[in-house]
Design brief:
This protein has 84 residues and is mainly α. The chain is built from 3 helices and no strands. α1 runs antiparallel to α2 and α2 runs antiparallel to α3. The chain is elongated. The model has no long low-confidence stretch (mean pLDDT 95).
Length: 84
């Protein structure tokens, strides 16, 4: 167990941040999955801006790497363009 007040505070902060990061990470993965599962082009085109916005936000806060966000956006755009 921690011996200093600052250590106890750090533990509380890390727990809060971890829960926050897990929530947004899972939300991002679900949004990408949902977009990839869509077979209707109009729906996919409508969903794409929201997903890219989420990816950019997570990259900005360093929850995911900026290159990962850009790779995902690129792959999703390619997927949407291939839909008939």
């Amino acid at each position: 167990m921690a011996n200093h007040k600052s250590s106890l505070k750090r533990i509380r902060q890390e727990k809060t941040r971890r829960l926050h990061n897990r929530y947004y990470g899972k939300t991002m993965r679900n949004a990408v999955r949902k977009l990839r599962a869509t077979t209707n082009k109009e729906e996919a085109v409508a969903m794409y801006p929201a997903v890219t916005k989420l990816l950019d936000k997570l990259a900005k806060t360093h929850l995911i790497h900026k290159n990962k966000a850009n790779n995902l956006k690129s792959k999703l755009a390619i997927y949407i363009n291939k839909l008939a």
